[in-house]
Amino acid sequence: MSSPSQQAAKLGFGFAVSQALRVVIELGIPDLLVSGEQSVEDLAAATKADAEPLYRVMRLLAPEGVFTENPPRHFALTEVGAALRSDRPGPRDFIRMINSEAYLAFEQLLHSVRTGKPAFDKVFGSPRFDWLSAHPEQAALFQRAMVALSQGTNEAVADAYDFSRYTRVVDVGGGHGQLLSAILARNPHLSGVLLDLPPGVAAARRGAGGDLPRTDFVAGNFFENVPVGDIYVIKKVIHDWNDERAGLILRRCREAMPAHGRVLVAETLVPPGDEPDQIKAIDVVMLAVTGGLERTEAQYARLFEGAGLKLERVIGTRAAISIIEAAPA
Q1: Do 184 and 243 share a structural domain?
Q2: pLDDT confidence band for 209 (50 / 70 / 90)
Q3: How far apart, in whole angstroms, are the C-alpha atoms of residue 325 and residue 61?
Q4: Owning domain of residue 265
Q5: Residues 137, 156 within the same domain
Q6: I need a surface site. Which of 28, 102, 142, 143 has the fewest CB within 10 A?
Q7: In sequence order, which residues have a C-beta less than 8 Å from that of residue 133 and are 6 or more positions away?
């Protein structure tokens, strides 16, 4: 059993594992091992890598459950490693994204803790989303990473809520339109509006997120105004922003909605207590990279109150995401 000092030291080496994951993904190692066990020399030849450093990286990942090592210097894929294949819907692009510019920003996490401001701005000279707008290749990777993280959650949200009372659903910051597509497919009585920045709207028009019948596409800024509808869905957007900016998005929805309207915030709530939960790690990433945060139910209640809304209820789904429903106050 590890001593407390050894356990603390292991935690400190977490960066090595995350960067090693990125390396094997970039080299395409999981794809090469689909057909079965291979020697590190063959893997290095196929990826134009140096065999000895590649062996050391893969040896690090084997005890983490990504590969199994079979002497002499042969590796096979585990179920965890198979989740990193390019033909699987999984965390591959998210790991690549989070270990790129976000990783560099995280070195300045202490700046965020001392100032409450995102370290990303200090390291890169501009806010995260402004920087992505100027770097289309990284922006495309970010979008793919978000799609990967959303596997199954759009359907879960669409299935968990009864939209029968409403006529026009507005997807605020809807990206490629995956969630709106799922909602409209299940509710043929609804018309839809997809609101996002121009690149997201263009991708949605091309069908990147699925079929979007009965939909108006609006390129705009949700901090300035949102289209009229009677129910608003905001999935994995509010967590990107601090309370002031998140409250402004909600206030714009409140200004546009009728008295019977509702706002549905689809986010993962931070649970109480000290049990391990991935959302707690994502929360600290938000602190350093965007200045946003993951919130508890009580924090959402306060956020709604400041925007002229009131928390009605929290609806669980079959995925690791909840629907936090708000009505006009």
Answers
A1: yes
A2: confident
A3: 42
A4: 151-273+290-328
A5: no
A6: 28
A7: 139
For residue 250, what are the contacts with CB-CB under 8 A and spacing of at least 6? 234, 238, 263, 265, 303, 304, 307, 309, 326
Provide the mean pLDDT of the chain: 95
Structure tokens given for 216:
């108006």
- 165 and 29 fall within a common domain: no
- Per-residue model confidence as pLDDT tens digits over 78-92: 999 999 999 988 899
User: What long-range pairs does 121-130 form, CB within 8 A, spacing at least 24?
Assistant: 121/291, 127/290, 127/291, 128/289, 128/290, 129/240, 129/290
The amino acid at residue 216 is D
Task: Based on the fold, state whether residues 212 and 161 are members of the same structural domain.
Answer: yes
Catalytic residues: 239
Domain assignment present for residue 278? The answer is no
Residue with token string 């009229």: 228
Question: Most distant CA pair in the chain: distance in Å?
Answer: 70
CATH number for 25 = 1.10.10.10
Beta bridge partners, 192, equal 169, 215
Residue 185: how many CB atoms within 10 A of its CB?
15
For residue 148, the model assigns a pLDDT of 80
Q: Tell me if 313 is assigned to some domain.
A: yes
Q: What is the pTM of this model?
A: 0.90
| 170-180: burial string, b at 16+ Cβ within 10 Å, e else | bbbbbbbbbbb
| Residue 212, CA atoms < 13 Å, CB-side half-sphere | 27
Query: Do 328 and 308 touch, CB atoms closer than 8 A?
Result: yes
Among 55, 82, 109, residue at a domain's last position? 82
Instruction: Look up residue 292 and give its amino acid.
Output: G
CA–CA separation, 71 and 43 (whole Å): 15
- Per residue in 16-46, pLDDT (tens digit) is 999 999 999 999 999 999 999 999 999 999 9
314 plus 175 within the same structural domain: yes
Residue 242 has phi, psi (to 5 degrees) of -70, 175
